[in-house]
Amino acid sequence: MFYFDVALKLxxxxxxxxxxxxxxxKGNLAPASASDQVQNYVLGGIVGGVIYNPDITIPExxxxxxxxxxxxxxxxxxxxxxxxxxxxVDGKPVLLVSKGQIDVKAMKQVDLSAHDxxxxxxxxxxxxxxxxxxxxxxxxxxxxxxxxGEKNPKYPLITDGVIQxxxxxxxxxxxxxxxxxxxxxxxxDVSKIFLAEYNxxxxxxxx
Length: 207
Description:
Layout: H1 2-24, H2 34-50, H3 58-81, H4 83-90, E1 94-98, E2 101-102, H5 104-109, H6 114-123, E3 132-137, E4 143-147, E5 156-159, E6 162-163, H7 165-170, H8 175-184, E7 195-199, E8 202-206
Antiparallel strand pairs: 1-2, 1-3, 3-4, 5-6, 5-7, 7-8
């Protein structure tokens, strides 16, 4: 009976994982944010901590999975419809290096040491800060680097109706310039833009 309960709990946990992946997208297989990683860790902890515990019945385990499932979906919905929640939960890209100069305040803000930054740059074959035009820490912990002399990477100017100030700084533009460019394309409401990219002096918009 014990082994039957273990097998059934494991099966329920496996089905819960498949259900969440299919309802929330394949992004959970390669988490792009801290919250995506945490939800996977929590599910692993729930399944691992419950399947060998005979004191937790199958109905109780199913209730735990339902609560976890509702929390995941609720948080995902809030992140999608509320930019403040998304920024609070996942954070935002942080500009660490600009034109060969390290932003020490930003480094301390993300709790990144000089050794950590140097190590991450060396992994990309970069051995001096002076060669770095821009270095941005993404939400998943990766550092994206643009070297001096390279073209600006095609970072989005607007995602999900939100203007990306870091990208504007990278191309030496401001928000007023962006709004004027959008108006020239007949776009008045930024919130209606799904994605806007800057490429070779042009703004490519997907509403």
